[in-house]
Write a structure and sequence with these properties.
This protein is 29% helix and 29% strand. It is an alpha+beta fold. It has one domain: Arylamine N-acetyltransferase fold (2-Layer Sandwich). The two termini are 24 Å apart.
Length: 249
């Protein structure tokens, strides 16, 4: 891996040795520069979990991706920098209750002075790694996160300001390889039951908010509030992708 090119892609020029502080900085840098997006699925392009293909897409072509791509490549970067990383299978909470099947989401664990949950591929979620064994809520900005032990599972919950605790996903500590996620990755590219085939999404964390392109709606959330704009044409959509997300399809 060309570590220098990857770090330039995410705008990171800090220290590289494995530490909680550097993990936080790398995590934030990644989320502020590399969007979570599924645009290739709607362009009919097959997504690859091959390491060289991921590097070419995310670093060389300066695109984003979804969890398997983003966390898959980020795990490789952290490994190159000397972090001890484990890939884990997560099941995403459903609005109707229950959870999705195993391997529906790829998350990471980093083993430092203590284990940390790492995730740059879940869209609107925590921007800094979470302490795996912390029993109390872990606040970040206007939200807080909680990891609850439930048998073999760790459940990740989120609470927004004045809101209730809402489950995001659950995972076990069993280690996996990226190849273990290939079948579920194919499902999300091809199945009409996958939410990734039903709607285009491109979203990026901001230092104080988030910008999201959902279908043809541009949603910007900042400390000042939330705005939604319906894009009027394909040309406007393409321009927003390029100017606000740095993405050229």
């Amino acid at each position: 891996m060309d570590i220098g090119a990857y770090l330039e892609r995410i705008g990171y020029n800090g220290p590289r040795n494995p530490s909680p502080e550097n993990l936080r900085a790398l995590h934030l840098a990644h989320l502020h520069t590399v969007p979570f997006e599924n645009l290739d699925i709607h362009l009919g392009r097959t997504l690859s979990l091959n390491g060289n293909a991921l590097f070419d897409k995310i670093v060389t072509r300066r695109r984003g991706g979804f969890c398997y791509e983003l966390n898959g490549l980020f795990a490789a970067l952290l490994g190159e920098l000397g972090f001890r990383i484990t890939m884990v299978s997560a099941e995403v909470a459903r609005q109707s209750g229950g959870f999705s099947p195993p391997f529906d989401h790829l998350a990471l664990l980093a083993d430092l002075d203590e284990p940390w949950l790492v995730d740059v591929g879940f869209g609107n979620s925590f921007c800094e790694p979470l302490r795996l064994h912390e029993a109390a809520a872990q606040p970040q900005g206007d939200a807080a996160y909680l990891i609850l032990l439930d048998g073999d599972y760790r459940n990740v919950l989120r609470r927004d300001r004045d809101g209730d605790w809402t489950p995001q996903y659950r995972f076990t500590l069993q280690p996996h390889s990226l190849a273990d996620f290939a079948e579920r990755c194919r499902f999300h590219q091809t199945s009409p039951e996958s939410h990734f085939t039903q709607n285009r999404i491109c979203t990026l964390a901001l230092p104080e908010g988030r910008i999201t392109l959902s279908g043809t709606r541009l949603i910007v959330t900042t400390a000042a509030g939330r705005t939604e704009t319906e894009l009027a044409s394909a040309a406007e959509y393409t321009a927003v992708l390029r100017e606000r997300f740095g993405v050229v399809e």
